[in-house]
Amino acid sequence: MRIFSALCYLFAATALFTGGNDFLQGLEAQRAFGSTLTDQGFADPLLDNVFRFFSGLWIGVGVLFVLFVRDLDRYKPAMIALLCIIILGGIGRIISISQYGLPDDPSGSMLVYAGLLAELVISPAMLWWLATRHHVVPG
């Protein structure tokens, strides 16, 4: 249980930090990871708008991890759904890699690999643990 909780808090901190940074900086935050967008691309209103929208959702994921892990008996189905959403995001990364490859910049590639590790290795392991663990619901 402690490892599961620690992973939830690590996921939450990651989502809150990266989501907050991306929410405040918009697409500009991706320059540090070697994004190959042109200056015009970084200034595209639609791309920036959508990016900040999804950054806000990512912040929400962080909040939900904190909420759900504090009372798994109550929020177990919601935590399972949240982990499935994270796994779905990892599948989206695989689709992106198959279409466009990995970033040329090593820091960008490492970011993608770290995401894949969290989304397609750690999250499924957490999902399995949670699905097979029997919580005692107070009666």
Which structural class do the helices and strands define?
mainly alpha
Determine the N-to-C terminus distance: 21 Å
Radius of gyration: 17 Å
DSSP summary: helix tally: 5
Summarize the structure.
78% of the residues lie in helices and 0% in strands. The chain has helices spanning 2-25, 39-42, 45-69, 72-100, 106-132.
Q: What does this protein look like?
A:
It is a single chain. The chain is mainly alpha-helical and 139 residues long. 78% of the residues lie in helices and 0% in strands. It is built from 5 helices and no strands. It starts with a helix and ends in a 7-residue tail after the last helix. The model has no long low-confidence stretch (mean pLDDT 93).
Summary keywords:
139 residues; mainly alpha
Could you give the topology of this structure?
Layout: H1 2-25, H2 39-42, H3 45-69, H4 72-100, H5 106-132
Helix pairs in contact: 1-3, 3-4, 4-5
